[in-house]
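Fold it.
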Amino acid sequence: MKIALLPGDGIGTEIVAQALRVLQVLDLPLETEQALVGGAAYDASGHPLPDATLRLAQAADAILFGAVGDWKYDELERALRPEQAILGLRKALGLFANFRPAICYAELTHASSLKPELVAGLDILIIRELTGDIYFGQPRGRRAAPDGAFVGAEEAFDTMRYTRPEIERIAHVAFNAARKRGGKLTSVDKANVLETFQFWKDIVTDVHAEYPDVKLDHMYVDNAAMQLVRAPKSFDVIVTGNMFGDILSDEAAMLTGSIGMLPSASLDAAGKGLYEPSHGSAPDIAGRDIANPLATILSAAMMLRYTLNQSAAADRIESAVRSVLAAGLRTADIWREGDKRVGTREMGDAVVAAITKKTITKS
């Protein structure tokens, strides 16, 4: 099983290193190869997604990705910014379905921004369409100066666009996911204002005819954002477009206590995937051994389950993470008085110890 490791920038190298350590103690026939991506790749080769990195990702069975970006690249033209690497990988590999689970572990209900009774037992799945919508529409308005100003421009706009096949395929993914969970799917749109999302709503409704055992609700995105805060456990599976999914999944992250706990998977039609934490590169804490590696470790578990067909190994990782949390170990983002505060490396040590059945102590 060949895994491409793309740590990227900022804390990406630290968190991917811990996920790799966890994978290495599972006694699986894994082969890994690492390559530069994002700002690190731009510094080395002048492009955030070099041909060699793309070829490695295409040849691998799965990709484990860290994070990209740094403020120092903000003055680059958009096509050369680190974030273009992940957009390029999604497009080149056909990674159209983004799975973002939001689970609130019992030990972390205190870390949520909401009252414990609202988030205790929370387990929802947001499915975001990844390769269409306004992020891939045709842009208008170019920055003509290196400082990023629109010199002489009078307007700028981006095109929101979806095709029927794009919506149908993400709808099928979402209905199948809901069928395997609680049997309820909420499709989020803005059909009252945008023709693109009236189109979305109509097609999702058509596809629903093939899944009569799944309950389908439609909800406007502004209401969905409100309901995620008011009654998050009323959701099971949410499916939505690229931009709305980007925003709602980050909102859902805070329900769990920290975005540092949220893994994600981006899959193609055959189930090959790129796996990454939902958080960013956090250059302000890079190299300080304080980043939370659990989202990346849990992303590795998703990789084993969804792409590499190693569900038992995925279960071992997820069980180990629960054990570590039950033992009171916390990185800074989820720490409170009475917990044992640990760094990135020590949290990785604890997960490895839990997998190998070594003792984890709270103090």
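Residues 1 and 30 are 5 Å apart (CA to CA).
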